[in-house]
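Re-run requested by the PI after the first attempt was lost when the workstation crashed. Everything re-entered from the original request form. Ligand of interest: flavin-adenine dinucleotide.
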Amino acid sequence: MPVDTVWVVAEITESGPSSITQELLSKARSIATNVAAIAWGPDTASHAAALGEYGATKVYDVGAVGETLPGVPVAGAIAALIEGGDTPDALLVPASYDGRDVAGRLSAKLDRPVLTNVVGLSENGGLSSEHTLFGGTVAATAHFTGEGPQIFVVRAKSFTAEPGGGGAAEVVSAPAPAAGATGTAKVTARHVEERTGPKLDEAAVIVSGGRGLGSADKYEMIEELARLLHGAAGASRAIVDAGWVPYARQVGQTGKTVKPNLYVACGISGATQHLVGMKGSKNIVAINKDQDAPIFSVADLGIVGNVHDVLPALIEALKNR
Amino acid sequence: MNVVVCVKQIPDPAAPSALDPTTHNLDRTGKLILDDSDAYGVEMGLQLASGEGDEVILVSMAPGGETSGLRTALAMGAARAILISDDSLAGSDALGTAKVLAAAIKRAEPDLVLTATESTDGYTGTIPAQIAELLGLPSITFAKKIAIDGSTVRVERQTEAGYDEVESPLPAVVSVTAGVVEPRYPSFKGIMAAKSKPVDVVTVADIGLEAGQVGATGARQEITDVSKVEARAGGEIVVDDGNGAARIVTFLEELKVI
Ligand SMILES: Cc1cc2nc3c(=O)[nH]c(=O)nc-3n(C[C@H](O)[C@H](O)[C@H](O)COP(=O)(O)OP(=O)(O)OC[C@H]3O[C@@H](n4cnc5c(N)ncnc54)[C@H](O)[C@@H]3O)c2cc1C
Ligand SMILES: Nc1ncnc2c1ncn2[C@@H]1O[C@H](COP(=O)(O)O)[C@@H](O)[C@H]1O
């Protein structure tokens, strides 16, 4: 028997529901009879068609949250619905910054546990979640044993986004209750870092660089190779922490999960936290001077060599084609 | 100003990790060390609470009265620590852990609570928001810079697109990303001084919680199955002697990427 009702915490970007929102709605549709989206923002109603397309029949509209960080008002709105008697069996929450805030706040408010880092969900009378541990070498299955609603925080790219052809979702107002002291964190300015080329999590080809590049200026080779392959440039956390490249480039557990057709890792050791973010790539090429580097254990083609030799030669060869 | 820094003591990530075959809990029987991710919070706390009368107080929950990781953070310069250690805490989930930490944090009456964005071994990443909600405080997660201005905390918060400037009145909970600051190495003097710094070891009952709210019972979830993931088939390894780039070009052609 399928699960009755699943709610999806829906993130809306300028171009509509984010890709993970589409993934979660698609999955929800396959396991539950009723799927609703929880959305916030100044103009949620205009996305009712897009949310419906992926499977939501209802949108709970929290409304504009202004400069308040979304965690508190969105968790507050969900808790108010539930306390009002409208309760889902499960909530699917994106493993994003705001998603984790919503899940954490809601969990404490409702006194319900959360299962995080979910990479799969199956329905077998109840719901079980799949998780990968230790850099993806071990898979675990888990489920809740107590009273619902069950809160699952799901990693990006765990499910495929598939439009289901549903009509526009019905919009129901679900305003956030007054938050008191908890809701006093306010955004005073937003800074958008420049980006050119395809988005990291949508690119078919990703070229990533790590500490093995030696210095920040050498990252230009990564960008150039990415450009030549019409792909995006990524990075390990080591060089994001070092300030060589912005965080938006980071691939891995705390960065983006990517599944491109081709991933080229240059001067990256392949720490478990990096591997979990890119292991799902269809084809992996690694360049590393240490033949024992763990990255080679996932590479389809491994070049034991110096990035300062191999990358310039590769760039030159591609330019000459 | 009192800054509480939550620090997790974890099995050495360099050693192979394992799940207990019967309980499916992470094996924490060996010696524990300070989670590297929390060293950033400790450093940030020390920088923010550097005035006369300011104090950095560590809060940690760990089995077996473990203090090795705490000593590292005390050696960096924290004034004292509260350690919650109790057999009934085994198998705690994120919410249970947050309840314990929040109850202990309350005792320190902090102006600011710092955590890492996620722990190296648990990485649920929900604990900062859970602690904040339990304490009725505002929270700013994913801070890459923190400044205190009177009774306001100003944070540069990482976002998908860049960063936001966010501010909140104190007290507040802020989670910091790795790399925000360069954690200092404990000096010899610091290491010696750490040995005599107070560590207040408390039980679940001491902080006013009941055993059923925490530990495996409170977690209300179970791992039903653990299995090895089939390793990706090993690929071709080429030692570059000038032919590496050409081999990649051929591979790209095979994939029709070029
Ligand atoms: C909680 C937590 C979350 C984390 N999240 C992430 C994450 O999201 N993403 C992530 O990437 N990491 C993450 N990490 C960090 C991770 O553990 C590693 O520290 C990091 O991935 C290492 O980056 P690196 O491979 O660039 O650097 P290193 O590990 O220093 O590796 C550099 C590699 O370059 C090679 N090299 C050196 N010189 C050359 C040369 N001239 N030519 C070719 N090769 C060369 C070396 O052999 C080495 O293998 C996380 C860690 C923790 C604790
Ligand atoms: N047992 C613990 N003791 C102290 N702090 C903890 C503990 N567990 C988690 N934390 C803090 O909460 C952060 C997030 O943890 P997690 O939700 O497990 O990823 C950690 O980085 C620590 O700062």
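Saved to the shared folder this time. Residues 94-108 of chain B form the longest helix (15 residues).
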